[in-house]
Design brief:
alpha+beta; 5 helices; globular
Length: 183
């Protein structure tokens, strides 16, 4: 098996006060409306709608660490169908890192949208009215809590998000996650 990476990855980290991040980068109405267009809306435990005021989850913390990954594939003609396979090693690495940081800093981590990395393709228990199978490791994304990740990436990390214009992945992919904590 070839273990050679098929991409280059650049990591950028920024810290911002929670108050500023909530005030300048959170727009729940806009991003909830975007989430409603997704087929996962209400079907995964990491996705809205939530049964509580999500802002209250953030209030105990005074800082936010934003971590961005810019993943540049070596193959500029890679089809979109392969995007998850390309990103999976970085998603897995970052999810582990986020959980470690959450524990070390007694904070609240925010991961990534998309496929649950813990259920191995199984239907989310939420669809059967059951609790999450992995509540110790599943975290919502910043988008799920109403944050503008494109603005976050651009203004705080200096990474402009790019989108595919055809059936191939864009020239690079951007992953953004975060950790709310007390400095």
């Amino acid at each position: 098996m070839n273990n050679e990476k098929k991409y280059d990855v650049e990591e950028v980290v920024a810290e911002v006060d929670r108050e500023r991040y909530v005030r300048e980068f959170r727009d729940v109405a806009t991003f909830e409306a975007c989430c409603q267009q997704c087929p996962n809306y209400g079907k995964r435990w990491g996705c809205p709608p939530f049964d509580h005021d999500t802002l209250q989850d953030l209030m105990p913390y005074n800082k936010v660490m934003i971590i961005g990954l810019k993943i540049t594939p070596h193959d500029s003609k890679m089809p979109m169908e392969q995007v998850y396979d390309l990103m999976h090693p970085e998603l897995e690495r970052m999810n582990k890192r986020l959980l470690t940081l959450e524990d070390e800093k007694n904070g609240l981590a925010f991961g990534f949208v998309g496929k649950c990395p813990y259920c191995n393709g199984a239907t989310c228990a939420r669809q059967q009215g059951k609790p999450c199978r992995h509540p110790d490791v599943v975290r919502p994304s910043l988008e799920a809590y109403g944050f503008n990740v494109s603005k976050t990436a651009s203004e705080l990390l200096g990474i402009d998000m790019v989108w595919s214009k055809d059936k191939n992945i864009p020239r690079y992919l951007t992953l953004v996650c975060g950790l709310f904590f007390n400095a």
